[in-house]
Amino acid sequence: MIDLKQYEIWFVTGSQHLYGPKTLETVAEHSKEIAAALGASAHVPTQVVFKPVLTTPDAIRDLCLEANSTKACVGLVTWMHTFSPAKMWIAGLSLLKKPFLHLHTQYGREIPWATIDMDFMNLNQSAHGDREFGFISSRMRLNRKVVVGHWGDNETQREIGVWVRAACAWADAQGMKIARFGDNMRDVAVTEGDKVSAQIRLGYDVYGYGVGDLVKFVNEASDAEVDKLIQTYMDEYDVAAELRPGSAKHSSLRDGARTEIGLRNFLTAGNFKAFTDTFEDLHGLVQLPGLAAQRLMRDGYGFGAEGDWKTSALVRAMKVMNVGQTGGVSFMEDYTYHFSATGDKVLGAHMLEICESIAVGKPKLEVHPLSIGGKADPVRLVFDSQRGVGVCASIMDMGGRYRLVANVVDVLPTDEPLPKLPVARALWLPRPNLKVAAATWIFAGGAHHTGFSYSVTPEHLRDFAEIAGIEFLLIDENTKVDEFKDKLRWNDLYYHLNNGL
Ligand code: MN
User: Fold this and answer.
1) Which of 34, 158, 174, 241 has the highest Cβ tally under 10 A?
2) What gap in Å lies between CA 204 and CA 172, rounded to an integer?
3) According to the model, what pLDDT value does residue 493 have?
């Protein structure tokens, strides 16, 4: 459902007229070659568009305005092949509303020792031309990513690709509609927030609905549609015997299918990319949407439980960043601890809504009581999660600003089977250990709800936060509690000053 090929990165080269037309022609040829190489790179998921070499303030300003108004353009990669006096860039950069990455590279990989002369030196001077551009970007305090390295190198292209994914998630969030069925879970603090400031800062818009609005769509699902979806479930999952057609609890599965159809149709009709619900507010729904939320997440929708629209938006952003990568992305919650001699672990899960994109093996489709919410037993997918390095990320409204915190975790198999646990789950060792990870997370005010992924990395999240202009905090193998607390205090000051009035 998410197509990153609809997006473009513009490859923009700066120069000036000092060197004559011949040099500028060569600069353009080199830039075309680099743009084509980035466009062909497996790391870069979008189109890469070469733009004519910029040599005047007017051309730079026009290019920036054109980027702003071109929907498909999600960001610029800038490079100064020669020296491009940076006062020329002030007007354009002042107006630029799209993210940019400063690529500090050079056309030729090595110095041609035997033939190098001043013509070569004048053509290949990004070593200082890019520093001039860096100065004006820093002088204007512009958020951007700087990538250093030869453009043909795998690592250079990888770093660019990570940023491009973050830029796509940013573009996707601008004007994104999130559907919120019901309100916040009563009295919960961290899932609340200022939706107006979220729209100003992060670009998305949260639309509130009564559950009755959704129920109308659920009731409109036809028996034929339900039959077809039941067949899909039978094909894709290990369906519990009691849920199969003709069995005792098959009606629960039909209710689940009807909910999925209604929810999907509602989201499609309103052009929503993400949604929330809450078990406290299910008027007219037979069961809490478990299976439906799981399958919609799999298809790229953001989701947050208990009215958590910030996490829903974050899960969607991570889904966008993850397109075409192998690991999954899910809504997640730190649920229960395992303090043990082999390391203190976290059992992550939720009441129902974990995305099957992180599952290992074929999920089981089962029905069990929910024990809260006072509704019929909801159907849900039950599975263990893939092993490997993952990340949990959480976004909080700190009052006037946003904070994104991430923790790197190592997902392990469970110590023993969990035959009585009727929900999908993941077991992990947080880095550097639970003692430090949980303490720093708590000092940061990190939420219990997170976006979880194996292939969206802290680097993606950092780039996203940089584009958004929000705080990013990483908890990993290098984290120390005291240093982390200092960072929190310094950042409070920085963001307070940076926000101004
Ligand atoms: Mn929850």
Assistant:
1) 34
2) 9
3) 95
